[in-house]
Amino acid sequence: MYTQAMDVGPREERKALRTAQEAELEARFDERIDGGGYVEAKDWMPDHYRKTLVRQISQHAHSEIVGMLPEGNWVTRAPTLKRKAILLAKIQDEGGHGLYLYAAAETLGVSRDQLIEALHSGKAKYSSIFNYPTLNWADIGVIGWLVDGAAIMNQVPLCRCSYAPYARAMVRICREESFHQRQGFDALNVMMREGTDAQRAIVQDAVNRWWWPSLMMFGPPDGQSVHGAQSARWGIKRISNDDLRQKFVDATAQQAQVLGVGLPDPLLKWNETRGHYDFGPIDWDEFWRVVGGHGPCNRERLAARVKAWEDGAWVREAALAHAARHSNRKEAA
Amino acid sequence: MMGTDVKQEWPLWEVFVRPKAGLDHKHCGSLHAPDAGMAIQLAREVYTRRQEGTSVWVVKSSDITASDPGDKAMLFDPMEDKVYRHPTFYELPDEVDHM
After folding, report:
1. Is residue A159 within 8 Å of residue A99, measured between CB atoms?
2. Contact criterion met (CB < 8 Å) for B49 and A317
3. Helix (H, G, I), strand (E, B), or coil: what is residue A247?
4. Alpha-carbon separation of residue A2 from A94, A98, A202, B5 (angstroms)
């Protein structure tokens, strides 16, 4: 999964006033980044680099956790035991990915509770894609194929992110994410090849609904992305939104043919001269509406997270009380 | 201890996993857990979902003492000019160069 946090949040400005020492530290920092070097948690870093990373990593983490919800919707209704086991494993992976990323964000000096509070208060965003509903079983396959496919394309360059704890988390995540995409394609492929006409129609319907939101996952066009230049400078973002989107369209257009589904874009066409697929305009008004909290499921998703957190409070407290009593007893002995 | 109205977080633990018998435990990440037993359980769920390990160590992050990145040059640079500590520094006759 992924987040468009780099593009939809406010920009972290550099402090207007810097001491001579800060300026020197920053020059040395820039030099290290330019040389392809990594930054570790305890190294000096500019304030706005730290803030940008906290926003990006935490919102990426939130996306993983919220991303469990649309899929959780189908655990009890997966068509076979095999598909249920696969879906459970995938959802557990998403939870794991969220935890790797929260831990990476915490190395920058924020607490887990602060991060979760920012999600629950609506201050922090998560990927807009999870505000769409999963109406049919085929939606689960399409999420694996398209949504995780788009996420992988976004995430692979992050494995070389300048902030090492983030990069290390991304390496682990990317290794696991490939299973997510393949199981999705496989689930759809079975329906297309062995299913009934009605089942094939369900796949096509799911593709029609998820195609455009998947393209939006790469964030606004390069000209409108407020963070692109600075993030590229810092090695936080290494390939532009539009380049990644094109790469995704090129790959999936061919996969759709193998699958035997159409993509809901009459302008989608191979362009011999460009060596890429051309595709139609994206409805950015819809994107900003969903990011702004007015997608089909925004309220439901956030309410589910807040409820889970509040309902689990007594467990967290009890575990801590148990641990405290146990360690007191040990000290007394 | 934090203020009374702030819920206390579970402490942070560092997780080390031995990928297979015969190899060292290697740091692989961190997690929050109320105590050591739970930390082991959670480490299993978070870091070894695909048989990545045969053994796990957890240690409270607050119990780790780390070198200061600012001391990096002082601590590690003195070794830079001690190339004679490496076997490749010595050129031996061909007949015994496998030594």
Report:
1. no
2. no
3. helix
4. 11, 10, 26, 34
* Number of residues that make up chain A: 333
CA B12 to chain A, closest CA, distance in angstroms equals: 9
Residue A169 distance to chain B (closest CA, Å): 8
pLDDT digits (tens, 9 = 90+) for B38-82: 999 999 999 999 999 999 999 999 999 999 888 989 999 998 899
Mapped onto helix, strand or coil, the DSSP state of residue B16 is: strand
The DSSP secondary structure of A297-332, one letter per residue, reads: SHHHHHHHHHHHHHHTHHHHHHHHHHHHHHHHHHHH
**SS3 at position A333:** coil
Give the span between the Cα atoms of A189 and A192, in whole angstroms: 5
Report whether B11 contacts B20 (CB < 8 A): no
> What global pTM score does this model have?
0.91
Are A250 and A277 a contacting pair, CB within 8 Å?
yes
Distance CA B14, CA B39 (A): 9
Say yes or no: B69 contacts chain A, CB-CB below 8 A: yes
In the chain, the amino acid numbered A72 is G
Name the token pair of A66: 């919220």
Bridge partners, B55 (sequence order): B18
- Indicate the residue of A113, A176, A323 with minimum beta-carbon distance to B34: A323
With a CB cutoff of 8 Å and minimum separation 6, the contacts of B89 are B83
